[in-house]
Amino acid sequence: MHVEMADPSPSRTLRVYEAMPLAPAWVGLALALILVAIFVVGEFALGRHELLGGPTGVAREARIAILHILLAAYFPTAYVVVLRRTRRTLLELRPALQCTRSDFAKLGDAVGRYRWWGLAATGLAMVLAGVRITIATTAPGVDPWSWRGPEILWHRVLNPVMLWWLGCLTYALIAESQRLYRLAARLAPLDLLDIRPLTPFAQQGLHHALLILGAASIASFLVLEVGFLDLVTGIWIQAAVLATASFVLPVWGVHRRIRAAKRVELDWCRVELQRARTALKRGTSAPDRARVDEVAAYKQLVEGVRDWPFDPSTLARFAFYLFIPIVSWSGGALVERLIDALLE
User: Fold this and answer.
1) How far apart are alpha carbons 277 and 272 in whole angstroms?
2) Is the pLDDT of residue 137 over 80?
C-alpha cells in the first residue's frame, strides 16, 4: 500500500477536527450526542415514542439507529486519532532516528497523505459489504430497501456513511502501521541493553488495537437484537484479526532490527569465546579464564533480550483489549435484563 499522494494538502478531516477547541475524542462525542438528540427529537415530533413499547418493532429499529449514529461518529474520530497518534509517535522516536531535520519534517508531513483512489476503493468495498449485510439481516419477505419509518431512514442514510469511514479508518491503520514498519530502517544502531527508546512502536500498535476493538464493542450491542448473532460473531473475529495485525505490524520492523542486532552480538561472543578457548588450551593464565566468564555472561545477557519491543504488561493489556467487545456485550445484556425486571 502506497501512503504518498500527489495532493500536498493535509487530510481535510484532520483539519476540521483540529480547528475545534476540543480534543478529537470530545469532538466525536459531541457529534454523537448532537445526532442522538436530533434523532430523539424527531421521534417525539413524529409521535414515534408512543410506539416504542408496542409490538411494532419500532424500539428495535430505534436502538439500531442509535448504534448507527454512534459508529458514524466513532469512525471519523478514530481516523483522526490514528493520524494524530502517529505524529506523536514520530516525535517520541525522533532521538532514536538517523535523519536530518528536513527528512524528519517530511516524515511528519507524510502522515495522513494517501492516494485518493486507495481510500475510495477501501471505502467503496466497505459500503458494498454493507449492502450484503443489510440484505442478510432483513427479515424474510421484507423488502430490505423499503423505508418503513424514520428509524429505517436513519439506517439507510447512516449505513453507507458509517461504512465509508470504516474503510478510511482501516486504510489509515494499515498505512500508518506500514509507515512505522519502514521507519525501523532509519533507527540508529540499537543498544540491546536499553530498548526503552523503542517503546513508542509498541504503544502505537496497542493504540491501534484499542481503536479497532472499541468499534467492535459498540457493534457488539447488536447481538441483543434478534437476527444479528452471526453478524456480531463475524465482527468479533474480524476485529480480533485486524487488531492483532495492527498491533504487530508497527513493531515488526523493530523486531527484525533487534534480532539482527542480537545476531551481530552473539556472533561476536562466539568469536571471542573461540579465541579464549584456544588460549586456554595453550595453557594461558587466569586472566583468560576470566575473559571466558565475562563473554559467557554477556552472551547470556544478549540472549535474554526480548525480540519484541514490549514487555509482559503490554501483552497483558492487549489480551485485555481483546475481551472488551465481549465484556461490552455482557454489560449490555445485564442492563437489558435489569430494565426488563424494573418494567415487569
Assistant:
1) 8
2) no
